[in-house]
Design brief:
The structure is a single chain. The chain has a five-stranded antiparallel β-sheet. The chain has a two-stranded parallel ribbon with strand order 1-7. The protein is built from five helices and seven strands. It starts with a strand and ends with a helix. The protein has a domain of 129 residues: Hotdog Thioesterase (Thiol Ester Dehydrase, Chain A). It is of the alpha+beta class and 195 residues long. The radius of gyration is 22 Å and the shape is globular. 32% of the residues lie in helices and 28% in strands. Bound molecules: coenzyme A. One of its GO terms (biological process) is acyl-CoA metabolic process. One of its GO terms (cellular component) is cytosol. GO terms for molecular function: long-chain fatty acyl-CoA hydrolase activity. Pfam families: 4HBT.
Amino acid sequence: MEALPVKFSQTTLTELMIPSYANFGGKIHGGILLSLMDKVAYACASKHAGAYCVTVSVDEVEFLQPVEVGDLVHLKASVNYVGNTSLVVGIQVTAEDVKQHTIKHTNSSYFTMVAKGDDDKPVKVPPLLLEDMVQIRRFIETIKRKQVKKEAREELMSAKSQFLPADDFPLLRGQRCETRLSGSSSEFDQLFADD
Ligand SMILES: CC(C)(COP(=O)(O)OP(=O)(O)OC[C@H]1O[C@@H](n2cnc3c(N)ncnc32)[C@H](O)[C@@H]1OP(=O)(O)O)[C@@H](O)C(=O)NCCC(=O)NCCS
């Protein structure tokens, strides 16, 4: 399979933020931006893969600045990494105020997509041709991020399976919650009611 350069599938989507995208505070709904990010990730990944792709996971998304009605939102997507059947697409979102001629960075995220064949099974994607240091850095960063995510997932699973009320209830001290258990569990209320 021939390697494809990053630029082959690089995709930019620009969308005008119309009033129906706004929340009750007059700013753009986060969900609108997430949907556009999914769309551009799909376009970019499918073009590289030469196949339809599905979204498997989305890395942490933080909205750093609000987006206003009337802004032009630009979503730039690049394939940062490919595995066998999966691809990681990096997306940078900026919002342009057309009257002020200003552009602000609102958020960036990474979408993991998997290419699927006509039988709905994952299919192999072409390797990625890295042509500059930025592309090499992004590929290597993704390898590291995948490793960190794997370790975090394992830790989370083990924390979930090791919930021991008697040991873990003290973690509720100082938190903004109350417990009001009934029946045999009510003895645990006492564990942090002492404060
Ligand atoms: C994505 C999907 C095909 C993976 O199925 P699977 O049986 O785990 O398949 P595999 O084990 O062969 O994994 C396929 C690839 O997905 C990757 N993958 C699976 N789960 C993942 C996860 N949680 N995060 C990141 N990558 C993941 C695997 O690492 C593998 O990558 P590789 O081939 O590059 O090594 C399957 O979970 C699916 O169809 N999910 C629904 C996706 C969807 O419909 N999304 C739209 C939202 S409605």
